Amino acid sequence: MAPFTLPTINDNPGGGWGPSSSNLPPNFKFKDIPYAPYSKSDKLGRFADWNDISGDNRPTNVGQTTQQGNQRTGQGARGRRDGQPAFGSGTASAFAYFHVEDESSFSLVDTKTSAVRSRGGALSRGRGAGRGGSSYSNRGAAQRGGRGGFSGRGGGGQRGGRRGWRDWEKNNRTRESSVAISPEWSMLEEIEFHRLAKLRLEVDEPEELGSYGKLFAYDKSYDRITTKSEKPLQLVDRIKYNTTTSDDPVIQSLASKEKATVYTTDVILSVLMCAPRSVYPWDIVIVREGNKLFLDKRDGGPFDTVTVNENASDPPQDTPPVNPNNPTERVVPETPSINSATSLSLEATYINQNFGFQSVIETPPPPAVELDKPNPFYGPDETEPLASCGYRYRLFDLGVTEEEDIKICVRTEVDAYSAGQNARLGQGLVTIRALNEFDPRAQGAGGAPDWRTKLDSQRGAVVATEMKNNSCKLAKWTVQSVLAGAELMKIGYISRANPRDNTRHVILSTTSTRPTDFAAQLNVSLANGWGIVRTVTDLCMKQPEGKYVLVKDPNKPVIRLYAVPANAFTAEEDDEEGFDGEEPESGV
Q1: From 220's CA, which of 102, 157, 471, 534 has a CA 20 to 30 Å away?
Q2: pTM of the model as a whole
Q3: End-to-end alpha-carbon separation of the chain, Å?
């Protein structure tokens, strides 16, 4: 009989499974491979990356558990059903796999079968089938309660039950950045939106530093307008200033007195506080002088216009440029469409300005209210009438502890006051905004119902659609109203007199809401916004003195901080000043 010898067993004197590291052979080939615990219920995803082989013929990124691999689908964030965290979720991501390919070109393909037509041309009865098809579409999402199911036109499905022409390319539409990124710029930080959404900072009531301007009373007759008693929108010639932070003489005076660390306006600050909701690109110029930060906007930038259906599933698009190298490409007309993104933005800006000018009472009674000091931007040589506008300079404390002295001075704006209130004491202040309807059947309408038929009978459906399609715009308006301390926010519903004419508009209705209540409906967290502001402030204060730009990526939910030369943007500002060298006015 052949002799049998037991193999050598390496005992672990310290307890636990497996041999101890001291007993391992010196040439043990699996010695340096990391180990991450996982549960029996976890499914392994990609376990090896063979695209990147190191010199020792080992894959560099090995393994991926469900907790790490399914973050995009939300499975890992939910954890286990019994409320306990997933096993091994607290360990380091040694097995994390990082995708290096751009997956933005992939989109979900609808595999649902369309409804089968019967002989009479009607759709056969199926789950979710309306007049248009069997798949649930965004067009009827906010129109529940209409005849025929979800959609007010007979169903929630798309016409014909098929996907639209070239729908798979909608996610591939790229936007241009709001500012050209120069090779001379150096990127300092990059923050994803999902990280911004986790920030939180509670801020106390602000301190009033001064109020400037003149306010007219809001005309309450606009609250009684209905679709049956519509009122035309008028062109009112008034001046309203939207001066950037560094050019504000009041802020310059406050900065010389060291009143705060950060200086900005409510328009700029609201974009930063609502950054996770933004889709379109934007940029904020940040100047650090000594121990102070100034958040500025560029003239002609995205802060001077109003977006339309930015958050819609298929937002309005601009006409793509013509490729001269491709003779088969269709010829783009010289005149842009009135329903393009740029045309709609200019139209919405025009509507907002004129609705605010029109909906106030300029001839007493009630009288106009002069605030503590006159308008700081209205020179003695000006002769054109001023619009109703009040500027309130307010100081917010961003300190986490009592020892920290980080304060932000914000120039806020209010548009009118409620008759019978004392506007000088900050009572009954009103902000006025306007939503606009262009064409419910046009591309980019976002499934909005016809306001003339639904606004009076199904206002909830109209509001829900606007909250979905214009989530970022409404959030910014609400934040601006809260920052200004306004008690009411008036929102007008303004539509084109003819869908094919973007020059004539009518006021169909006006709603009134408290900004704090509307913020709760929109799920807007002021604490999250202040957390974003404090985070950006800390990032900029770590940098040396100079000029920086915070840029929102045009196609990804990411913001980036760049260091730029001191003379950046000065050339374009000089070109915009004109031949007389005077600073251009912002207003109508």
Answers
A1: 471
A2: 0.69
A3: 107
